[in-house]
Amino acid sequence: xxxxxxxxxxxxxxxxxxxxxxxxxxxLQDITLEVKPREIFGLLGPSGSGKTTLVKLIAxxxxxTNGTVFVxxxxxxxxxxxxxxxxxxxxxALYTELSAKENLDFFASLYSLSRKEKKKRIEEVMKLVNxxxxxxxxxxxxxxxxxxxxxxxxxxxxRPSVLILxxxxxxxxxxxxxxxxxxxxxxxxxxxxxxxxxxxxxxxxKCHRLCMIRDGRxxxxxxxxxxxxxxxxxxxxxxxxxxxxxxx
Length: 248
Fold this sequence. Notes:
This protein is an alpha/beta fold. The protein has one domain (37-49, 78-243): Rossmann fold (3-Layer(aba) Sandwich). It is built from eight helices and ten strands.
């Protein structure tokens, strides 16, 4: 269950002996893991553990100090991979002086969607995040939760083969959160590879496999059932504490 060396990049995602330093600070240390195609792979860890830095490396927004990251056999970062990856950051990157629809139109143009496909996809993703009735509202008038939902819609707009979501459901009500997770399951079944960072334990249970990170180091990888069984834990939260060296 603990991470093992990945030598031959193929489909899916491979992270090989990755380190990331900012000045003298080690944010990630010797991370090696593999995400399988069509998998919902969860990154679980407290704030400051290195989750966001890791997903930025996978998305190609940042590059490792040492080590390699491959997505679908291509070493990252690579500009021509942007159209194949959907990325939802922890901070919403939205144009608040524009309406939600204008934001969607702008991002759709970056992905070269046809007019017909753009219209269809905007309707689909806004329905998913329950923002159809607020399509023409200025983003500056959106609540924090609505902005998160719009960011999620934008990340899925171009049907990416890899979807990376950094704390996607923060500020979203439980009923809509269930709906979003149902859609993530459907995307996985249809062939999308997903990486999701979360603090929410019931969301962690929905992942096919979990990577537990603490202080920039990978401490365990496995299915939720495997992680609980190997630590004789009743919950993922308890298993994380055991792997982190803190007996509950």
